[in-house]
Amino acid sequence: MESQTLTYAIGDVHGRADLLDTLLERIAAHAADRAHRLVFLGDYVDRGPDSAAVLRTISRLNWAEPERVTCLMGNHERMLLDALLSPDAARHWLYCGGDATLDSFGARDLTGLPRDTLDWIEALPTLHGDAARWYVHAGLRPGTAAPDSDVHDRLWIREPFLEGDHDFGRHVVHGHTPQRSGRPEVRPFRTNLDTAAVYGGALTAGVFSEAQGPALDFLSVRAA
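RESULT FIELD:
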């Protein structure tokens, strides 16, 4: 393991900048001098108190080292982008926690959000793969190859992805469905890293080696 590149996949943050900062410190300490990558699984915004700080932190990491830091789009980022297109979508986004995102930017409405931040969100991919795993926000539709999967499914799917155990050829690492226990869900072919940080659970990173299969370890941070 010492000679391998580790991958730290990080679950849904939802504006919990305090937990994110602490988790990144724990990741740095855990990796020490080993080569490592970061994969953020989406849902950086909404509901929690400081989406603006979360976006600043994650986007700066991505801009500084795009080959080492991958940031995926979540359904809440998609809702934010859709809110720019129609009043109905804007009302839906606000109902789903977008009001907290506006507050964190000190914005009265969507026009107060920074253009460069919106451009960064719009360019986010919805799927990332390495030799051993697929990384996606919500999941994949069984029976469909990951690269051919529907973008809407990648952002929103629950069933039939969550029911049963579906082999996609590589272990699937995802978030989207909060685990109120505060612990990751580990199944034979997938790992769910949404440990409900915004609901008083934990913010969790799975630590993956270059070998196929589930995480070697988990790093979690809970609110004091």
